[in-house]
Amino acid sequence: MKRGIPSATICSTRFVPVGRKFAQALGVSDLPIIEVHDEVGHDSPDELRKVAQVVADAVPDILRKYQNRNVSGQRMREEELIETLDVDAGTDLSMRVSERFLQENWSDGLPVVPPTEDRVQAMLDTVATPPDEVLGVLHPRGGIATVRKVAVCAVMAGCLPKHFPIVVAAVRALGTPQFKMHSVQSSAHPHSPFILVNGPAGIEAGLSSGHDCTPKGWQANLVICRAVRLVTINMAGLKNVIASHTQGHLGRIMDCVRENEEESPWEPYHTEQGYARDASTVTAFPGEPPHLVDDRGSNTAQSMLTTFARVIANGGNRSMFGNTQQIVLFAPEHAQYVASQGFSKDDVREFLYEVARVPLHEFPKNNLDSLSVWHKKLFANVSEHVTVPAVRRKEDFKIIVHGGIGPHSLYMPGSLSSKPVTVPVESKR
Amino acid sequence: MSKVRVLTPVVAVKDNMESAQALNVDRLGASAVRVGFLDNTKPNTNQLLSLVGGLLIDRGLAASTYAADKTDSPASNPASHGATEAVFKRLSQNADVVLTGLGN
Predict the structure, then answer these.
(1) What is the predicted pLDDT for the residue at A310?
(2) Is the pLDDT higher at A20 or at A395?
(3) Interface test with B, best of A2, A180, A369, A415 (most B CBs within 10 A)
(4) How far is it, in rounded angstroms, from Cα B40 to Cα A315?
(5) Is the same domain home to A293 and A281?
(6) Which helix (H) or strand (E) covers residue A333, if one does?
(7) A221 lies in a domain?
(8) Is residue B38 helix, strand or coil?
(9) What is the CATH number of domain B31-101?
(10) B16 and A84 in contact by Cβ < 8 A?
């Protein structure tokens, strides 16, 4: 439509409200939508012919609407840009601000710290980046994420000033084209930014990398992640449709950790991305909620890594259907054992590339249609015993050491389109 | 009661229509139009759009149909990605109206 061609889109009933929201966000609020029933993706040829009749029946009316200029393609009216609110002072200020922000869909439902000018300024004072610098345009909403507005979200989340340089870096990562925030927000596939911090900035911010690092007691892990979440709600999300994930993402509010560099036998993640060991970085990964990799009995590295491969590779894993980056969070105990057997990180990647595979016959037959174009090209007309790798290249396994004592690692399937992005943490010092 | 000023997280939104072209509806007055289809690769979409094309031609609404898809997308799951410039260009050249699918 924005290319000047009259257009209409076909949506199943469940997707119509989301389709309208996205059309609005893209500036074409009056895009005609033809509604079809929800099971259309599974319809038999006979059923599909009936759906085609519904669509064809709708076309004359759409053409008439365009001819009569009842569909304009005009830009939607912009929302009022409210910069400040004056709120009654008093002991329950925080509660009143929280309630008002929730009414306006600016919050996540938890109480917020009122973002007063002095609190926001304290955040801004920690970074050299000017307050009006744009860290990114966050899609699908297209919100312009300035440092100042990100500072407002950081205050709301309960961040301390020392946390802010990490929040800034995280938002910068989300705003890069490679991260494809639009896809992370608009796909039904439940995945969300997982924030990894490397280097001294994470220690200075008080981020935990170790045992039980996500519940109480680790303020930095929680509030930094919440700040990023509030940024996505206010700048990337659409009103009342924050994301279209089928279930949302159960770990979303706690997905910020520091790599356990102290106990890792391998080089830290950020040095693999070309940064100096003493540099501080934030990496945003598009990840599903984590899966447990439990291994407490292996007595060879190969056996232990096979456990990892079994968790990763199965025919029901959505991330097997496209070209993804698979995120593997080794518990220190697992990493140290594998390394003690002479396995470098690259050896681990090589092993997982060879072993984390699924024979074609283990994909449910009717799901094969969902394989990526690349998979279809490579695996068309081959024996059903041919195996499909979990990643296209071994480098697509992202190896991180994380957590405390115990034989429990985590695996986080990646996105089919968004890629991890690493950026430096900048601060005034 | 005195007031406290708080800042809001409300942001300006990038104007998504800044490079939008004016809608060209002139050709829609013709007795039959060229209908383009953009298949986002969701299951059954290709088949559905083909059937719709056949019906529109049978009913005399479409003079011709032109099918495009997102298989040239760099993403392995192109459904949630915009089409490439090459696809838009081909649709602009070959269609007076475009049906896209499938939101599902």
Answers:
(1) 96
(2) A395
(3) A2
(4) 23
(5) no
(6) helix A332-340
(7) yes
(8) strand
(9) 3.40.50
(10) no
